[in-house]
Each structure stands twice: as C-alpha cells, then as structure tokens.
Task: structure prediction
Amino acid sequence: MVRMSGAKAFVEALEREDARTIFGVSGGAILPICDELYNSEVRFVLARHEQGAAHMADGFARASGDVGVCLATSGPGATNLVTGIATANIDSSPVVAFTGQVYKGMVGTDAFQEVDIIGVSASITKYNLQVRSASEIPRAVKSAFYIASTGRHGAVLVDLPKDTQVDVEEVEFPEEVSFRGYNVQTQPDVREMDWAATLLANAARPVIMAGGGVIAADASSELLKLSEFLSAPVATTLMGKGAMPCDHPLFAGLCGMHGTGEANMLVSESDVLLVVGSRFSDRTTAKLEEFSPGAKVIHIDIDKSEVDKNVETVTRVVGDARLALHGIMSRLANMRFENRRNGEWLKKLKEFRREYAVPELPSNPHLRAPEVMKALRRALPRDALVTTEVGQNQMWAALYFDAYAPRTFFSSGGLGTMGWGFPAAIGAKAAKPDVPVVDIAGDGSFGMTENNLATCVEEDLPVIVLVLNNRVLGMVAQWQRLFYGRRYVAIDLGKTPDFVKLAEAYGAVGVRPETLEEFEAAVKQAVASNETTVIDVPIDPEENVMPMVPPGKGLRDILVEAS
Amino acid sequence: MAQLNTIAFLVENKPGVLFNVANLFRRRGYNIESISVGPVVNPELSRMTVSVFADSRVLNQIVEQLDKMVEVVKVKRLDPMRTRMREMALVKLNTADPMAREEALSHVNAYHGLILNIEPETLIAEITGEPQKIDDFIDKVRPIGIEELSRTGVTALEKGRLKL
Result:
C-alpha cells in the first residue's frame, strides 16, 4: 500500500499495463491526470477532436494487437468519443476509453460539462464503470485492460470523477483481477472438435470462411495449414481480410454483398462450411434464407452467444480460434478417412472466377478505381499497412487491393464509420512507425476527420492519404443510380475543398497525379520521404463498385455489371 | 412458437446492473412480461426473475446475451414442469356500495386472498398465486370497479435439489 493521488495511481496503472502511447484531447475534468503525465514516459498524442482520438486508439489496437487507449474530458469530450467506441466494440477491437467526470458530489446536478457517459455508453461497450474513490483506480484500470483484451475483444469505458483523481489515498496495484460473471472459455471442447473434424473429413465440397476472429486469435498459420490439408478454398469476410494471403491459390476472395463471384458461389455450393471467428453479418450472408443452403455449418467462435444467432449450425466449437483450428487439424492428420474430395471442386474455383470476372469498362479519361488499387499495391512494400474509409473506397480496397498478412488491412466493418480510416491510420502508424501506412479514402469520408492532418504533422506520425475523389458521396450515389432511378439527393460534394491546398495548409504534402504512372511515383515518393502526403486522385463520379449483390437478394444473385 | 418462459439469474449487487439488464432487453427487442429483483443469502448478489414471451431461438439468445454480461454470475431458463411460481397483487376496489363490498369480499375469500385495509369507500385485497390465478381474480372483480392495481412480477424456484 502506498499513498498517492488518484491521478498518479492512474498513470502508474497505465505504465504497469505497458500503455506507452495514449490518444486524446485534454480538458477541465482530466487536468489532474494531464498534470501527472507531465512527468511520465507515457506519450499523449493530441488529436484535434475526440472522435479521432478514439479511432486512433482503435487503429493502434488493430495494428499492434495490444490494447489501444484514449482519454477525453467530461461532457462533450466524452460524447465525442462515442462513435469511436461503438466502432471499436462492434469490430471486437480492444480499446479502453477513459473519461473525466465532474466531482462526485455534483454528479446528477447537470453541472457544467456533465454527461451521464455510463448511461450513454452502456449499449456500445463490452463493460463500463465509474470509479468512486482514488483507491479504486488501479483495479479499475487493470479490469478495463483485462476485459477489453480477453475473450471476444471489445471496448471498455472507465469514468473518472475529478475528485477521485485529486484525492490522496492508500492504493494497491493488483497483479490480477477476476469477475464472478466473466469466465472466458479459450480451450475448446474435445467432442466439439471431434465432430468438426469428422464432418470436414467427409466433406466433398468444403469451404472455410474466415472472419476477424482469425486475426484476433493470431490463427492465420493454422488456417492456412487446415485449408491446404483439406484443399478447401478460403473466403474471408471484410474483417477477415489478411487472414489468408490474397495471392494464395486457395484464396477465393471476399464473401458478401460486395464479395467476389467465386467466393459467393463456393460458399453457396459447399456441403460443409467451416466458419471461423465471424458473426454472420448481413453484409456477409446477404439474404439469410439463401445463405449456403446445402451446407452443414461448423462455427468456431470465442463468443458462444454468436453461435446459432443468425445461422443455424450443425456443430459449434466454442473457444480460441487458434486452439480450435490446431485441434481440428491434428485430429484430421491422425484420422483414417476416404478422401471424397477431388480436383473437380478446386476446378470450380477457377471456373467461377472466369464466369464472374468483372468486365473491363470502356476507356474513359478518368483513372479507374480498381486500377488505382492495383497500382497502389505495386507501389507499396508487402508489409505496408492499409486502412480504409467507408463506402465505395472501402469496397474497392476490399476487392482489388491484395493483403498478404494479418494485421495489414483494417476497415470499419460493423459500424461502417466514415472518417474512421484516417485517424485509425495515425494510430496504426504510432504502433508501427517503421512501415508505411496508407488510408484509402473517398473525398466524403476524408472530409469527416481531415482535421487530424494537424496531428500527423505536429506529432510526427506521417501517413499517406489516397483520396479517390469523385466529388460525390459515392456509395449513396451508386444506390440512387441503381435502385432509385438516378434521383440524386444529398450526394453532390461540389468542387471543394482542393485537397492539395488543404494538405499544404496543414504543412503536409499534396499531390494530384493524372496517370497511373504518376500515381505510382507519388506513392513511392511519399513512402521514401516519410512525410504526411495527401494524394488526390480524381475518378469518375459515375463509376460503380462491382460485383454487387442487390439488397434483399442471396449470395448467388451476384451481379458483375450494373444493368 | 412464442411461449411464456421464465428465466432466473444471479447478478452482482451493484448500482447500474438493473439498468444494464433492462437496456439489454430494450436493445435486442425482447418483450418482458415481468421482472422481479431481490437480494439473496449472499448480500453481494441479487436474484432476478424475468418472464418473457419468446420462441426457443430467441429464448436461447436471451440466455446467452445475459450470460455474456460481466455482472451476470449465473443464468438459467427454468423448466416449467419443475418450477413453482408465485406473484402477488394488491388490488384496491371501489366498495362504496354495500352490495359491491359483499361481492368483493366473497371473491377475495374464494381466491384465498387477504383484506389489508377497509375504508368507507374502498378496500385493498392481497392475492398471491400463479400469474394466471391473479389474471382470473382481476377478471372477476373488474365489474366491481378497480381503483388501483399493483403486481410484483413473477418470482420462481425449481423444486428439489435443482439450483440456479
């Protein structure tokens, strides 16, 4: 036991969790904590808006695999975090948010900058709590990190009334914490794995669908081994992109509304579908009743409440994805079984790929987004990190930018938060300062959080922003074009801003390449210079993201051309 | 097919837990018929009993989602064949008319209720039993004139050695 202020205990608790970088905006209700950070090694990256800080913490967490931390003051500081917390939580990203709060005695009086952030954040966090005394702070910090980073990862919020930061009390730093109602089952059940292995051994048309859980569990190499052993093609969800190298012969691409034809068709025709660490989002399954109709579904997940939630399974394997895949693989390796698979099923992958190839568009003075994605891949080293915004840019990136390794491709999958990619890229850069980080953006999304250019420049966290600039809210425009008879409403972004000048105004580099060659050169230059660079690439506002499953249709109804 | 089911669970006895449970039911669109809460022998825990209309798939989700909450220590769907259920209702009846009072007293007697209070114009009856019995009693006394009604919600235990 030692006597210290709650703020000092808070900073020491952070250091004990090895949180060396936090993202936030300062403010009145966290002044005691800011004062303790003055003498600390913990780096406080100053965002220009709390939403950006939360996304930075999220990007940091996804790139590093460690907990990302954000800090904001009470009231508007706390509510500005909300979108970022919700984004992290639905994508199972381990983020801990700390918020200042008014003095305990003033809670409930509608004091200046008071908001009930515990009530506000209840539906968008895995857990939240308000600290009631300085001595509770070390346990609260430890609990937050523990819950955020175990089981199915998620967001945790800790609310710190100002007097709990100021008060000097006897404090103790617990080595571990536990909760009676929180027991994570990581070790899968033996019988469940036996069943799964038996089903896979007897499969004639096996397919593996890999979700974000594969990446969270660091299970990519186990996935690869099992896929190769079974000759089972792998489709990924958006969150699973990178779990399997995109240039692997068994990789079928993304499954879902904007999936590839081959992935959607293989999933639809499989007889045994092994789904790993995915929650069967509607964007992945398309029309639920038509999802993989003939398949026996095996579901591996750490969160047992996801099993049978949307899709009924034949068998579940609840536990850590790496342990589960390893367990199933070793059972198969020791099993005698008649191999019912033959080359026919794998030939299907190539057939579907040919059949559902997206036709080349007629030539046009504009650069084509898919070509820009491929050129970006050529210009970047294999270990570069990529984030996306949300909308057309995101789907072009998901379809046409190849990721080769887990934790190299990040996107706001569940919440679909425009403005996420840029601050997330800054957080990723803080986690991995030695590799280039690119935000694949649209002009609409980038506009939502572009003020974080100041953070890039001032905090020396250089990222590259690729703006696929079509001067419209492109995905909304695509839906209005295809499903609302071109009755365009609230999509036109006009001519402003000039992104080159915007970058320059922040002291960053801005360029506007006009050909693919110029674009590749600009990317290489940005990587070499390691300076924050905005690359503004004008594209055709009429260009659609294809393939696409129309809303309300099944995965088989995928269109490769807008009719 | 949607049926009335009873779920019992133990929660940490901390501020905000009731809010979080209610919030879960609201957010996921589960339709609660009643909820009752009270401390158990261990003062750190409370027991909640929820009755809910749901089919088996939704019921399974409710149990899983409750189980996932950090503050929920144990959760169980009670087997209707092995469960004793009780609910209590206080009913204030308009008995200004002596005939009405006579009729009210005979219904309370028939349902093994208690008279808690008699005023010149009203009386308060206490009825305990399975929810269906309380519904029946209310139907019987409705023509007399119900001034106020307060029900506790269902509380339940499984028989024998079965425990939560």
